[in-house]
Design brief:
- This protein has 12 helices and 8 strands.
- By secondary structure, the chain is α/β, with parallel strands linked by helices.
- It is globular and about 95 Å long.
- The structure holds iron/sulfur cluster.
- Iron/sulfur cluster (SF4) binds next to α10.
Amino acid sequence: MAPKTRVDKVAVTCIAGNSGTDLGKETSVNEQRQKQLHRAEQENICTWVRTAWARARRVHPASKRVRRLLGILPGALKATLQRWALERSPRLYSLLIETCSMCNRRCHFCPVAYYPRPKKLMRWHLYAKIISELKEIGFAGKIGLHSYNEPLLDKRLPRLIRYARNNLPSATIMFSTNGDLMTLELWLKLREAGLDYAWIKQYDGHINPNVRHVMEHLSGQERKRFQVSVFSAYTDTRGGLLKHMGQLEAPLKAGCLRPRFQMVIAFDGKVPICCQDYLARHVMGDVNRESLMDIWNNRKFQHARAHLRLKDRSFSIVCSNCNASHMYPR
Ligand code: SF4
């Protein structure tokens, strides 16, 4: 309201000093006053819109708070809400960091079995750069220390988790593992380092004895963080890499939300289009040379999101051969 008070004073002074002959001047002062009031009103509306938008973004379905609330909604309604919000504004909610390239298994449904990679660890410097950039943006989403690697093969895992936890207190830190190397001692060490939870996927059709042993020694609350599930197999073709899982005659006429909420960083710093792109055939950027946010907002990501929004997968060699349907943040 400050501009209004100032204009009032100016108008009163001018009118008081006016002998009645200078009506043109009085009119122009009034006009000026009207304009200033109008401008102040517009500024107020803009501020209101900006604040409302900022609030709306804070309660985006990819945020932790809303995801918790969404959990109690029926699946279809939850999916619709998530899709609606993500299609309007992409949000980096989930970041997968492949801290090493190795896996001890050769599963028939995984490209690791058919396309060997060199045995490498992600450089500590690169990992620290990623975490420091996440710290800069106050990242409070999910960090998964897995992609096509088996995280428990990386002996630095407790240290990697502790480093992320110390720098990103609000983030959810987790990983997915086949559980072969899991022991009670290691689990306690990882939890103590700041791990929130782990998916222990059992691919042999039953729970293996070492995993069962850990489960038996965890209390109710802690068991929720040690999430064991028995899997038979995945059915994804991994962007057409796994021919024996099926081949598409033409790209699916289906959208995909994955590049709107998730980014994957391979062990060498490359950012593939998504977690289906094992060989990084469609590279969006390289964290060694670019910042995370520059990659997330770059033209390649925008281009991919725009095509996928129109249910067009033909723009990418990976997407055009991908049989995965809509995916939402979990
Ligand atoms: S369509 Fe498939 S390959 Fe393309 S972004 Fe989505 S999940 Fe990834």
